[in-house]
Amino acid sequence: MESALSLLGIDHLLTEEERDIRDTVKKLVDEKIKPHVAGWYESGDLPARELAKEFGALGLLGMHLEGYGCAGTNATAYGLACMELEAGDSGIRSLVSVQGSLAMYAIWRWGSEEQKTQWLPGMARGEFIGCFGLTEADYGSNPAGMVTNAKRDGKDWILNGSKMWITNAPIADVAVIWAQTDEGIRGFVVPTNTPGFKANIIHKKLSLRASVTGEIVLTDVRLPSDAVFPEVRGLKGPMSSLNEARFGIVFGAIGAARDCLEVATDYALSRIQFDQPIAAFQLTQEKLANMALELQKGFLLALHLGRLKDEEKVRPEQISLGKLNNVREAIEIARTSRTILGGNGVTLEYPILRHANNLESVLTYEGTSEIHLLTIGRALTGIQAFR
Fold it and tell me: Of 26, 222, 233, 267, which is most buried with the most CB atoms under 10 A?
């Protein structure tokens, strides 16, 4: 029998190093994540600090960045790692991608040498946890309207405002905060033990429960002059980080979808109805075949974007295309897989509805489907349909 990603003989498109990285992360997820993640999801908790140190020891945190203790892999290898992490759970991939592609990347790309040397080596080892404060309660798709502000007070900066739906915030040691200033939107590196910084954990989530999510409240947070990113102004800074994280989602969604399809296939082969496995019925085989088709198309799309990124040729609208397609198809694969399991599919004994619930969040964070559609539309027409 063919596996979910083997019908097209995809493995030969990867280098030996890329396959090794993928397989190493898969082994970690199989041994350290999958046996426990249903319990973390049910309790709404995650041993994030312990996991971060495990991921750091393996070189996964900021793995596609150069220097400062980072592994310096190519983008495709990072994508493959995201695929395996999200096969465990979207919250696990979020922990790694927020750390590496949002917080670490922002410091690596826009920070001063002092900021880089102070934070990046410890973040790469998982000793420091980072978060990325851009979204606000009233400004999600329109971050330019943010009300969080930073004002000069002598040589210092004073930050006031709030950020919402911030992964890792309640456990973070450092936060990258974007704020309005007289010079436009600027980024600040904020140690979370700074007086006036508070992160409240968000409870009662029905999605991404194996993830630590918070609201950041900034009340007269005083920072020295060297806390600001020295050069970048406007949305160029945060958007560059979001493109890094969205790229990981393009691969990650395929991991969640693959896990659903593999579980559904195994279940269909073992579940007996009318004296034969339900995999023998034409309607079940149609579901499995259609899911396998979309899964492999999605992987090939992700791989193509990875190769473009490795050549420094990928454009934001291409990443939007990948995220839009792969998350949308992953949700459909999760829902269809659930129908094969029937009532068993709604329990945490199987990962499928957990993946489906998580993917509902992935569909809208780091760019909603509507925004990605309009980004693609702008690329096709040259007309900006939103402001």
Answer: 267
